[in-house]
Design a protein that fits this description.
The structure holds two protein chains of two kinds.
Chain A lengths: L2 H6 L2 H44 L4 H21 L4 H11 L5 H11 L6 H21 L9 H20 L3 H5 L6 H4 L4 H6 L2 H21 L6 H5 L4 H20 L5 H6 L29 H13 L3 H13 L7 H4 L15 H22 L4
Chain B lengths: L9 H19 L4 H12 L4 E4 L6 H12 L3 E5 L6 H5 E5 L9 E5 L6 E5 L6 H13 L1 E4 L2 E4 L5 E6 L12 H4 L4 E4 L5 H11 L14 H11 L6 H13 L9 H6 E3 L3 H17 L7 H12 L4 E2 L1 H5 L4 H15 L1
Parallel strand pairs in B: 1-8, 1-9, 2-5, 5-8
Antiparallel strand pairs in B: 3-4, 6-7, 10-11
Classes of the chains: A mainly alpha, B alpha/beta.
């Protein structure tokens, strides 16, 4: 308001118009921010869907997009400052001004146009009283209608967008490391079978560790097959362990395993009496190995379940024997002539999980077979 | 409480006088508050009123009471098909002083009164109607080459009956335009009729009306109403409202194009603003508001709009069309 209008308008009306200007500005800004929040929500949803369905998006790009939306809304809200004439019209319409404010503003701005002094005086008094009454009513009113909802909406948009972006994108899911098949195996067995390299790798390490342990501790009592070199180091290790365990049972009077009783085979002589026709373990003739079931349950079960469909039959047998205290290592470990090497590229998470869990199991296995006298 | 009430001034005093006038008339014609208010507005705006209503609703009583309350001279013309213009305006007759060769003198008709009630105006012939309406417009009567000015203030309250139209001569649109307001007299409510028994069963209340204001005061209030400030927005809004009724206008609303053959004239615009100013004074303001225009728009416009034949056959009424136009006008302004 310029000085001339300040002089022409009553003080209460000026105060009312100034107050209304601020309130309307806040209201318009709040409305713009609400629209901005909705747009931000829509943007978050769209980017999330894009991230999940089309291609992975980077966080900075999405944040830049959101910032652009919100910034545009804020700038628009700041630019929408209402004119004093609009405030007068608003007051006339909504505050029972009955066109007094707009008329007075019109007279103050464009000259009095020969208005009657009596009429002008009456108009000023009328507007003054009406404005003073409205000022009293609006004195303590805080005009932030809808602002908390706006802030909440924007926060929800941010959280929602962040949550969507935290999920693996489509590209990441397509190039996911195969080792994660162990965890999925119980739900999707074919998928787990296809993603078995990690389990196979663990199994290879397991066997290598066992062979090394046997090589270091069982030099004085190898079995015939181990001595003549016809068996693989793994089989030799298993056989030595089985002999050791059998010797311990004989010393302590511990009964044989049901498997051994049923096959009526000597504990130190690996025969093919317990083999199933068609079992590809037939070439190995490993002796039964007695190990604590608790030590092998987890790893043997996990490895066995992640194997292919052909091995599931032997897995079933293994699971049946887990109830007992003895088992053959060949039941838990599918014999393959070539132990696959670890994949060239593996995710660090998979590497850490294997190292932490399976190495511990190897150590437990070694502790279980114990030092051979 | 209206802000205009706090400090007495000319506008506050005028409002008080007008409210007192309305209260007085409401005691005579019970249950017709809106009609009384609009009639007072028309009289203060120095316009003429066409009252349309069934017989027995108190139209004549209202006119008589108004004349008594304002201290106006009162004249009445009962229109019939054989009523001649000279019966209304007056005529030259032989001088009645008894002397031979006294010559002719103009004998004034009933129209020479400040408030003239023309009862059942649609029963007069077009010739008589034309003479009457010319007097209403020109505020003067010409007879035998001599012009006779009508008294001021001059107000005609004409009545017509919406039924029994056989043998009547409906007023042409050009003559209807001379009336500031066309007011409909509705049936009173049950409570109003109950009160009417106490008021007017055995006496004529119009004869007992006290004087509220004299002619000078009425003229003063009329002059004060002309000082009411009209902002530019209100002028534009009034123009838009009139243009909205004109089917040929670019600003015509869909309702006007659909139902109206002819819209309101520039005289309607003047009537709208004149009546709106009085309404503003009655509201205690010295400035015009949109609500004033809205309040007087129906009585100003309803007799100035000509419906299409098909709309008439469909049972449309001008009041509904005006209400539709007002709704759109209110939304657009």
């Amino acid at each position: 308001l310029d000085l001339a209008m300040n002089a022409a308008l009553p003080a209460s009306m000026l105060e009312l118009l100034t107050r209304l200007r601020r309130e309307l500005w806040i209201e318009r800004g709040g409305r713009a921010l609400r629209i901005t929040a909705l747009v931000a929500c829509a943007t978050a949803l769209a980017t999330g869907l894009w991230h999940m369905l089309v291609g992975a998006l980077t966080g900075p790009a999405v944040l830049a997009l959101q910032a652009l939306c919100i910034g545009s809304g804020c700038v628009y809200a700041l630019l929408k400052r209402p004119a004093i004439r609009e405030c007068a019209h608003w007051a006339d319409r909504h505050l029972d001004g009955r066109s007094a404010y707009a008329t007075l503003l019109f007279l103050a701005r464009d000259g009095r146009h020969g208005a009657s002094p009596a009429a002008l005086t009456h108009l000023i008094e009328w507007a003054d009283r009406a404005a003073a009454r409205e000022n009293l009513q609006r004195a303590d009113r805080i005009h932030f209608a809808g602002l908390p909802q706006t802030v909440l909406l924007m926060a929800l948009a941010s959280v929602f967008g962040s949550a969507l972006l935290a999920l693996p994108g489509r590209d990441a899911r397509q190039t996911q490391p195969p080792g994660t098949g162990i965890a999925v195996a119980t739900l999707e067995r074919p998928v787990a079978a296809a993603q078995a390299p990690a389990a196979t790798q663990s199994r290879g390490e397991f066997l290598r560790a066992a062979a090394a342990s046997v090589g270091a501790t069982h030099r004085d009592g190898p079995s015939d097959r181990a001595r003549d070199g016809s068996a693989t180091p793994r089989a030799a290790a298993m056989q030595v362990a089985a002999e050791t365990r059998s010797d311990e049972r004989q010393v302590t009077g511990e009964p044989r395993t049901p498997h051994e009783r049923m096959s009526n085979a000597p504990s130190n002589g690996g025969t093919a009496t317990d083999r199933v026709p068609g079992d590809r373990r037939g070439n190995l003739a490993e002796p039964p190995v007695s190990v604590p079931a608790a030590a092998l349950d987890g790893i043997a079960y996990g490895i066995a379940r992640s194997d292919d469909a052909r091995d599931r039959r032997s897995n079933h047998e293994i699971e049946g024997r887990y109830a007992t205290t003895s088992m053959r290592a060949s039941d838990a470990i599918t014999p393959t002539t070539d132990i696959p090497a670890a994949p060239a590229t593996r995710s660090p998470g998979i590497e850490r999980a294997r190292t932490a869990a399976e190495r511990a199991l190897v150590q437990r296995y070694l502790a279980a077979i114990g030092p051979v006298p | 409480m209206n802000p205009g009430d706090a400090k007495p001034g000319p506008f506050s005093a005028a409002r008080a006088d007008l409210e007192r006038l309305c209260r007085t008339l409401n005691q005579v014609v019970v249950g017709q508050e809106t009609l009384v208010r609009e009639l007072a507005i028309a009289v203060v705006a120095q316009g003429h009123v066409l009252l349309e209503g069934l017989p027995g609703l108190g139209k004549t009583h209202l006119a008589k009471a108004l004349a008594s309350a304002l201290g106006l001279s009162w004249g009445r013309v009962q229109c019939t098909p054989d009523l001649m213009p000279a019966d209304v305006t007056g005529a030259e007759v032989l001088a009645s002083d008894g002397r031979a060769g006294g010559g002719l003198e103009f004998r004034r008709g009933p129209i020479f009164a400040q408030l003239v009630l023309v009862d059942e105006i649609n029963r007069a012939t077009p010739r008589t109607q034309a003479a009457l309406l010319e007097a209403m417009q020109e505020m003067q009567v010409t007879c035998a080459g001599a012009t006779h000015a009508l008294p001021q203030p001059f107000c005609v309250i004409a009545t017509q009956n919406p039924i029994e139209l056989e043998g009547t001569f409906p007023l042409p649109e050009a003559q209807l335009d001379r009336f500031l307001f066309k007011l409909r007299v509705p049936y009173p409510s049950a409570g109003a009729m109950r009160s009417m028994i106490d008021v007017s069963l055995d006496r004529e209340p119009a004869n007992d009306v006290q004087l509220v204001m004299n002619t000078g005061r009425l003229a003063g209030i009329s002059a004060l109403c002309r000082e009411v400030i009209i902002a530019e927005e209100c002028k534009v809004a009034a123009v838009n409202l009139v243009l909205a009724t004109q089917p040929e206008s670019a600003e015509a609303r869909p309702g006007a194009s659909r139902h109206l053959r002819y819209g309101a004239s520039p005289r309607a615009l003047q009537a709208l603003l004149r009546a709106g100013r009085v309404n503003a004074v009655l509201e205690g303001r010295s400035h015009l508001d949109f609500s004033d225009l809205e309040a007087v728009s129906l009585p100003v416009l309803r007799h100035r709009l000509l419906l299409k034949l098909e709309s008439e056959l469909d049972g449309e009424e001008c009041d509904a069309v005006v209400a539709e136009l007002l709704t759109e006008w209110r939304r657009l302004r």
